[in-house]
Specification:
CATH architecture of the largest domain: Alpha-Beta Barrel
Helix content: 25-40%
Structural class: alpha/beta
CATH topology of the largest domain: nicotinate phosphoribosyltransferase
Largest sheet: 7 strands, antiparallel
Oligomer: single chain
Number of strands: 18
Radius of gyration: 24 Å
CATH class of the largest domain: Alpha Beta
Shape: elongated
Amino acid sequence: MGKFHIALPEEIKRGETTDIYFRRTMEVLKSIGKSEVWVVAEITTGRLPNNWDWGILCGIEEEINLLEGYPVNVYAMPEGSIFYPTTYEGIREPVMIIEGKYEDFGHLETAILGLLCQASGIATAAAHIKVAANFKPVYSFGIRRMHPAIAPMIDRAAYIGGLDGVSGVSGAKLIGIEPVGTMPHALIIIIGDQKEAWKKFDEVIDEHVPRVALIDTFYDEKIEAIMAAETLGNKLYGVRLDTPSSRRGDMAAIVREVRWELNIRGYRNVKIMVSGGLDEKSVMELSKEGVDMFGVGTSISNAKTIDFALDIVEVDGIPIAKRGKASGKKQVWRCQDCFTDIVTLMSESSDKCVKCGSKNLKPMLQKIIDNGKILFEISKPQEIRERVLKDIKKLIEARKQLI
């Protein structure tokens, strides 16, 4: 290990981040001549955090990089796919399938799950918060709460989940966008005067960066909002409230006061941004109160992981699975009209949707690796995000139609 307590890419690739019992399993199988048995394994979850009934799959790009070169076949839902824990019949949905000799990938199970569980948890939390914001701009501000080694992954997953931008420099570079951010309290405190800090920011920072003034450092938020508007005038794009919990009180009332004071002074176009301690519930409440933008941190960056599990469902062509899991190599069929899913064996097909009767069904599990060879490149994050937002809106609308 180096100076930072992180595994190197080549160590992950070799399976050195595995749980020890997988190595011991391999020792036993080799000793009895069964390490080369051909298995089909699937990744599923039976439930999602916070009683959500849909999630956003993320981490497939890293899975491809992990499994490339190993003599296995891999099927997966596309990066950014909506997935459900189970179908209407209660059958778990596989989001990914790996088939090959157990000795060729068994030692990678820990890494395989880790790559999907955390990234999908972040993307799912981001998506639900974006919905809670009624699709208003939401930005990822949470990497300071997490280990810096995974900051790019966090920002990418949050962006794929539907957020509009990320604060992290390395995350933005990975995504291929410009990082976003306003100003910290440190700038204002070191300069010692809000007005002077806002002026210097305006003088120094590139003009393409929106002028969003932080307005809760020394005085009441509505007072600082007025000060910022009078100081920057038409250059002021927005004001950000990052009020600490000890001073928040009724945050919705504070937002209403700030909006009122700006409006009556002719600053109706100035946006109100709120950050600090936000989650799905508070974002929904504040969005209804007229907040225009949100900076969300820990509730996304430290989102609960998706409890994916990898289970063998077929051995040497014979369906077999542990209790609580359905055996056999499967396919997931999605109705493109109402987003209902049906699970069948891979060798079977489904001719129509059980909910709306549509015959517009699509197989969700695509072959992405053939005997260790990558079959196609993952789309760019911007393209994935656009598809995610489109699918979420389509899902919401379809559910309204079915009520």
